[in-house]
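Dear U.,

For the methods section draft, I wanted the exact inputs and outputs in one place so we can describe them consistently. I've listed the two proteins in the order they'll appear in the manuscript figures. Please don't edit the token lines directly; just add comments below if something needs changing.

First protein:
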Amino acid sequence: MKLSKMKKEELELLSYKDITVMILEEKGPMKTLDLFNKIAKLLDLPESTVEKKIGDYYTTLSTDKNFLLLENGKWDLRSKHTSDKVLKAPDTDDEEEEEEEIEEKVEMDEDEEDYDNQISDEDDFDDGDDDLKDLVVLDEEELELEQ
């Protein structure tokens, strides 16, 4: 049944979601505000109600799986669109990208190894062993005997 032929009392029994489905079936894709204004006009809702409930209405559309937000910002019924379309950049090959990433990682690992190999015993590196050459380690028993 067309919305224009329905009585206001019949429309009031329907949810905004149900009315939206009917509008989208009749009119095709529409923007959020246009949809809600159409509902408000059908139900004779005051402008203040539209301003208060537009956020809730948008949330309903975005969380309900029956509706689909198109690239142009319009809502449509998901049932009118197929999901078997896969968008892919024309000259992009995922396998080549993965191979390049692996090669880059291997090159980075090799660079790290080279850096580690560059450090030699000849470098000026003070390990502090000279300060500890006179250090004597005592057991607890020896410590007690000295006291």
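Second protein (the one for the lower panel):
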Amino acid sequence: MKFSQAQVAGYAALLVFGFAGPFLFPAYTFQLAVLWIMILFALTWDTMGGQMGYNSLGNILFFGAGMYICAIVQIAWAYDVAAYTSHAGAVKIDYTPEQYFTSLGVGLVAAAVGSMILALIFGRIVFGLRGPYFAIGTLGVALAAGELVGTWDYVGGGGGITVPFYPGEATVRSTFFYFLCFPLAVASFIFLKWLYSTRFGLAINAIRDDEEKAEGMGIHTLRYKVLAWTTSAFFLGIAGGIFGNMIGFIEPLEVAFPVVTFGIFMVVMALLGGKGTIWGPVLGATVFHIIKETTWTYMLGWQWVALGTLIIVNIVFFQQGILGWAQEKWPEKFGIIVDEGMGAEDSRREAAE
């Protein structure tokens, strides 16, 4: 991968902001940490919906699975899980710093691996579907996961489960989790940017453009589709484990598997910024998160109306997303040269990727 001086300067500025953010805006450390989670949501969804053309509505499955897997590992490190989650309160929670940090590290690894295994299993099933049937199928899997976990008493059932609490001051706790979210989002961006520049990127783009022709050219489409979903699951599983510890309490429908909020947000953010590009999801997630936090603070009661309006405007007037619209309006500023043999959309996509 080669970078221009402007790109290097842009990356450096973002990294500086990422490292300095919690110190410049200490009162908003949690919100900034969630911003990086949102960016990761949009990037991982775009792997499926933008780069490969498979609009998944069930990626939140891996987020929730990672959250529960990490919590179970953390609890099992020092206690019996069934006794810990008992509604009778049979266990007095008392984690040492060593127990907490060690179990958290192991839990995040387990969350990543467990989510990938789920992606491999369900991928073999749902990728037999295409188009809207695939979207509805993945949505059904995510909804079913939340309902099933809500009936599983071993992990607290519908009453939820308390995650071992960070053994330190509240201000340090926020900064600690911020510096888990920030490098995770950066790592996902770098990895996906590299991945799209390999044969993998060409293969999933071929699937997006014409899956039958891709199969006719000898591309093992099912293998690439499952691999794409597994890649998303890896990062989402870690994000779920971190987010569960940030919140401190896991509930199956509203926290772990929030299909109608986070599950929809990740789609909207990628579309808002411009799907099928590497920077579009980042831009869309940033704009969406700022609008969401602003409306939740100053327009309480009308926040869903504002977000719904944003979605309508995006779908009706800016189907190519903010980045795509800007590239069409000012192609020369993005280094796009449109010749007679290449359409504007092809040129935009080529430059963005």
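Candidate sentences for the figure legend, describing the second protein: Residues 30-287 form a domain with the ABC transporter involved in vitamin B12 uptake, BtuC fold (CATH 1.10.3470). The chain is about 70% helix and 0% strand.

Thanks,
Y.
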